[in-house]
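_Backbone structure tokens_
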Amino acid sequence: MRKLIWMGCLSYLVIGMAHVVAGAILEPLIASYGLDYRSGGQFIMNQFLGFLGGVLITPWLSGRIGRRNTLLLALGSLTLAEGLYSLFLPWGWMLTIAPVAGFGFGMTEAIIGVMIIEYVEEKKASAMTFIETFFGVGALVMPIIAAFLIKNSSWELSFPIVAVMSAVTMLLWLTMSFGRVDELMVRKPQLKKEERPVRVRYPVGSMPILVLGTLFFMIYVGMEMSFSNYLPSIMIERLGLKEAEAASTISMFWGLMVVGRLFAGRVAEWSGYGRFLVATTGAGTLCLIALTLVGQASLSLFIIGLSGLVWAGVFAIGLVYMNHLLIGHTERTTSLLVAFGGLGGALFPKLTGWLMDRYNANWTLAMLAAMTVVMLIIMIVLAILERGRKKSALIMHDKSCG
């Protein structure tokens, strides 16, 4: 099981790099093609439309070819796309390739998440946040590499680096053995129609929780991707930083996020998932509101780092929390949540690019802060619904005992 977790960590490291590489080199990329932020937003949006497709098809595909083969297909798609990016083809082709990259890292994220939640028997929150830590490491390391490459006028090497990392990870998944988990990851023979188990639907009473959860993930991923991809551009416009300096602000954000993820799982298991998510979402909201109000570089960098710290465990703990509220639907729930996250990651960066072109960075930050306020309201409502369900279950238990 430990080997599986470490391979999950490596896979999340790669998709963390893939998530932010476009944002880290967005300024020189759009400059080299003579484009505006809106076009850059379209590129990011196309990636996340592919992400959405990859996540949605994961349950169906893994049921037919097995989870290992699905993962190999995902990493192969990512490797191919990043390799084609490296050729810097005409912009129309880059936009066409972008969904293939998104398909790859979306499917990888979904299948690894399902495997960890389903196969790890104890301390699921700690296991998920540990793996999410490596997503943060990838998202931290890539901007540092990009800043170094930009400074040395070699930013074009960013895409080949991700391609090589993805290829190595794919080869490891292809050749390694994971003991008893190998049997769980292979393709299962298709049953005849009359032998198939009846598909269990979500209870009617669970639908409000599912709707709120998917909305929360859509807004969260949209906010995080908009923030991390446009943060350098926002800092250049608001504070006058140079391109290489601005690219390193993403590293500040992801660096503190990595630190936070080392402890988030334990804190969430100690405090309770609902309480943890309400507290961290509230703190993250305050950070973004504060960032819209300050204009000093040092204070802005402090708030950016603090934001990374408080948002650290939201995605992983959110997945575990929603599966805790919707027991018995792990694969479907996880895929839906990650898919709606991908939808947010596709739509909101496009809107962010439009705001950056039409208005300014202050309007962009105000929109991101407003998104976090909505997230906080959703999480408070979910916590109230959970408490109501617990009270109802306790009353039913008392009646049955009486």
